Amino acid sequence: MGFFSPVNSTNRYLGIWYYNIPEQTVVWVANRETPLTNNSFGVFTVTDEGNLVVLDRSRDNVLWSSNILVADDIDKNNTIGLLMNSGNLVLRNSNSTVDLWQSFDHPSDTILPGNET
């Protein structure tokens, strides 16, 4: 998982791809509709409101967000992002095993093993 640029492009995206295979195979992209342009850098973080976000380099513009409303009874300071061995990116409270958001609920055009629906 990380920021990448497709071949012959200066746009950058946050994505998840298979590791250690000859041809990069991206299986999920966060900011598909709003790429970073001209090889600029981005920031991937958890906000004070408990959302995963991709920000531009200046941190002024949100390019992508998990866009969930975290309940008031959940400590937003303990919200974390985890990349699971399955390739699923999850947002959860560190005091719980309940996922608040997961990338598997927002599939792209690649099906991962064990995620057939």
UniProtKB/TrEMBL annotation:
Transmembrane annotation, as ranges: none
Any single Pfam family the record assigns to this protein: B_lectin
Bulb-type lectin domain ranges (all copies): 1-104
Organism this protein belongs to: Nelumbo nucifera
Official protein name in the record: Bulb-type lectin domain-containing protein
Highest taxon of source: Eukaryota
SUPFAM superfamilies: alpha-D-mannose-specific plant lectins
